[in-house]
Amino acid sequence: MNLAVLAWKSARARAATTLLTILSIAISTALLLGVEKIRDGARSSFEQTVSGTDLIVGARSGPINLLLYSVFRIGDPTANVSWESYQAFAQRPDVAWTVPLSLGDSHNGFRVLGTTTDYFEYYRYGQKRQLSFVEGEPFADVFDAVLGAETARELGYVLGDEFDISHGLKSAAFAEHKDRPFRVVGVLDRTGTPVDRTIHVSLEGIEAVHIGWNNGAPPTRRSAQIDVSDIDKSALQTESITAFLTGLKSKSAVLRFQRDVNTYRAEALSAVIPGVALSQLWRVVGAAEQALRGVAFFVIAAGLTGLLTTILTSLNERRREIAVLRSVGAKSRDVFFLLVCEATILAAIGATIGAAAVNLGLVLFAHQIEAAAGFPLGGFGLSLYDIYIAMGIVFIGFALGFLPGWLAYRQSLSDGLTVRI
Amino acid sequence: MRPEKTTALCVDIQNLEYAWTNGERALSVRHFTIQQGERLFLQGPSGSGKSTLLGVIAGVFAPTSGEATVLGNPFHAMPAAARDRVRADAMGVVFQQFNLVPYLNLVENVLLPCRFSRRRAERVGPSESARINKAQELLSRLGLDDEAQANRPAAELSVGQQQRVAAARALIGSPSLIIADEPTSALDAETRDTFIETLLSEARNAAVLFVSHDASLSRHFDRLVAMENINFTQDQHVLSIPEDALSPAEA
Q1: Is the pLDDT of residue A224 over 80?
Q2: Inter-chain CB proximity B115 and A9 less than 8 Å
């Protein structure tokens, strides 16, 4: 339409401010949409930290607590699960597989997880993805260790390197087991889950560390030192574990199994369904991500305010231009729509560029972003949400145009045909 | 030239009053007419109400009371948008300066009225290319015949050239009334006379209302009217408007 053409030519004549305004809207649109994409990716990745596991069983506690220490390696369990209880459930006919988890030791701030080779077989994350090795293989010997991707990278360990592990989390807090060297036999591929920051050893390895440490219970005093060579590897027997992952033969058995665990008389245990607990936990963790989203919305508000400022600032220098348009027959209404058109056009161009940039950026740099973020970004290409957001920005731009439009309208009425400046 | 209405008078003002929003009178004209095709020289110092009168005749200001019939249209009884339409259809306006829209080229500036009036556009030519040709023709008759110049942005022109482009815009599409508000005050004496002669000869049958404080220019015109003889506002000092006059109204 005529007025839109005039509005565009007028905006183009003020190229520098117009470009900057468009740029600020584009950047804020890109930020909002980018945050949304990462939010989506983060949430789905978070909710798939464990997948394919039907139940996680640990000492009786709240589901989030159990999830935190067993999956995220955060915090400590209130109590352990005895080997007998573990076996009682593991031997049930409806159980397809179990993976025991034994936590409590660390190396340089990285948690050490005692488990069996079944872990590499049955643990799943993301879309039922299995753990894979970048190099090496699962542990076979008592002092073999398999490192998560992040652990290996940060510590700079390669196959064959030896290290000690200590009880508790901080290496300085407790004595290190200097005499029990572990050897790196495998490094896992990056998963974007806490597995990346874990050191995996066999259950026997955990036991070996604690020989003379009062049965594996968290000790606060030293016991007599026993030399590595004195350890009878075949005699290492695990007495308790921290938790275990369970896969059932039939999904319909999940609730019954869970009830059986929760009402188990021999020991106070809890079983949680990972998906349910993860969703609950996300509600807590997600608050930060809500804040991020809030910030993105404020940046949009700033971008649109910039648009308003630019147009309002231009009003005074455009009084003559508007008087000329009035003299050739423009109605006051036309003057109003001229400015509304300008605001809408700038917002539309900015939003389009922003949305295009985000999607193009995601396509071009998907690999780098996934590597840095540690989780896959879902939904490449323009989503319906992107379009809604972009349209929302254009609409707000249109609505904001009413203010300069109205001011120019009033100005044009009082200026009449002549402008004295 | 204006098939739709046939009235002997181009402008017919009776007992016109125009007051600012605070109620102070800017204009009080008992009787003022312009014949069709008449070349009228309106003389008066600044602050005599000239610009306000032009605003009323152009349909930008609505009379506070009285009648202002322009090209057969009772402006005192018409809504603003309808008055704007009459201006787009049948008037041409030239200002003292800053006549051009800086981001449009010469031809686009000349054809601006066609954007706001289809009737006028049709009078200029049946198609956009025909209209562009007409505009270029007109520009060259006014001494801006360089083809390259026609596509230059208006901002690059000298003041004299800008005034001629403004004249071309006022003349395009054969308007019935041309209003020129001090169009020559930014020009030197020589170009001033040439400008007026060209404007009048190109205006052909249109009535021309030419406003200036310089009475020596009146020799080009059929009739001279002094503002002080038609505007009977008592308190002349309020005509120098706005600051103090506007503030009570705002409050």
Answers
A1: no
A2: no
Q: How far is CA B118 from its chain centroid?
A: 20
Residue carrying structure tokens 């704007």: B84
Per-residue confidence band for B31, with pLDDT thresholds at 50, 70 and 90: confident
**CB-based contact B12:B33 (threshold 8 Å):** yes
- Rounded-to-integer distance, Cα A33 and Cα A408, Å: 34
In chain A, residues with a C-beta closer than 8 Å to the C-beta of B115 are 2, 6, 328
Q: What single-letter amino acid sits at A386?
A: D
Question: Hey, how many other C-beta atoms are within 10 angstroms of the C-beta on B1?
Answer: 12
| Other residues' Cβ atoms within 10 Å of the Cβ of residue A276 | 11
**Which residues in chain A have Cβ-Cβ distances shorter than 8 Å to B88?**
328-330
Is the pLDDT at A213 greater than 80? The verdict is no
Calculate ∠ Cα A152-A130-A122, nearest 5°. 105
Q: pLDDT tens, A134-144? A: 888 898 888 89
* Architecture per CATH, B9-234: 3-Layer(aba) Sandwich (3.40)
Please enumerate in sequence order all residues whose Cβ is within 8 A of that of A209, keeping only pairs 6 or more positions apart, or say none.
A105, A165, A167, A177, A180
Distance CA B66, CA B13 (A): 8
Q: Which residues of chain A have a CB within 8 Å of the CB of B100?
A: 324
CB A273 within 8 A of CB A64: no
The SS3 of residue B130 is helix
Asked whether the CA dihedral B193, B198, B204, B207 is positive or negative, the reply is: negative
- Summarised one tens digit per residue, pLDDT across range A324-341 is 888 888 888 899 999 999
How far the first Cα of chain A sits from its last, in Å, is 31
Digit-coded pLDDT (tens) for A31-70: 988 888 888 777 777 777 888 889 999 988 888 888 888 8
Determine, for residues B117 and A329 on separate chains, whether the beta-carbon distance falls below 8 Å: yes
Mutate to test the interface with B, among A5, A324, A332, A411 (most CBs of B within 10 A): A324
Give the model confidence (pLDDT) of B114-153 as tens digits: 888 888 888 888 888 899 888 888 888 888 776 556 677 7
Q: Side chain identity at A221, as an amino acid letter?
A: R
Split at pLDDT 50, 70, 90, the class of A375 is low
Spatial separation of the C-alpha atoms in residues A260 and A381, rounded to whole Å: 46
Report how far apart, in Å, the C-alpha atoms of B105 and of each of A148, A414, B100, B139, B163 are.
67, 28, 9, 12, 14
